[in-house]
Amino acid sequence: MRVGMAKKRWIVMSQNAAEHPVFYHCISRVVDRKLVFGPDEKEKFRTFMRMQENFTGCRVVAYCLMCNHIHLLVEVPPLPEGGFTDAGLLERLGAIYNEAEVADVAGELAEARKSGAAKRVLEIHARYTYRMHDLSEFMKTLMQRFTKWFNRTHARTGNLWEDAFKSVIVEDGVAAKTIAAYIDLNPVRAGMVKDPADYRWSSYGEAIGA
Q1: Which of helix, strand or coil describes residue 106?
Q2: What is the pLDDT of residues 124-140, one digit of tens each?
Q3: 96-105, long-range: CB within 8 Å, 24+ apart, which pairs?
Q4: Is the model's pLDDT at 7 over the cut of 60?
């Protein structure tokens, strides 16, 4: 049994984070706390989570997807100084939009650049960047996208989540490591596994089982 190993983790700052990054412990529960997340649901949620990471620039440094609630430890670094290049914006868009939609935006940008319409270029960027490097936008979009998929898959309607997500600021690296260990040990406390490495829908289990 290696439960103690879950506590031995490093929280590494992202390259464009402030000198003292702030992390957020986010929790959301399913309506009536029903046990509705099976393996397929957890895998799909993780897929959407990674897509949102790549689009928004927010970084999930620890997570655990349980059967009726989720825990995420999220770092929200600031927007890049000076904003994004057109190529950088298009790369971000590719995380959540299909090739045709990204190509349309690329065409808009190219036309605006060619005509010297600097204001138009800024408007196109702003259409998407307001949703980046923002915890509320990260969580809201992630939960909404998963809800749409879940409702479609299970032929249901209505809200999936009990309420808006709850978040607590974690102000330093030591506290972040403690919260990360707490998150990783959720399935052990719930009696689902004896070793956190055996739970594949958590950051620790994912890392060990890579």
Answers
A1: helix
A2: 999 999 999 999 999 99
A3: 96/51, 96/52, 96/54, 96/55
A4: no
The domain in which residue 115 lies consists of: 86-129
Q: Is 116 left (phi over 0), alpha (psi -120 to 50) or beta?
A: left
Exposure string for 161-185, b = 16+ CB within 10 A, e = fewer: beeebebeebeeeeebbebbbbbbb
At residue 25, what is the residue type? H
CATH number at residue 59: 3.30.70.1290
Structure pTM? Answer: 0.86
Residue type, 167: S
pLDDT tens sequence across 49-90: 999 999 999 999 999 999 999 999 999 988 888 899 999 999
Tokens 């898959």, residue?
153
Place of tokens 């060619």: 114
d(CA 73, CA 93): 23
Mark whether 26 and 56 lie in a shared domain.
yes
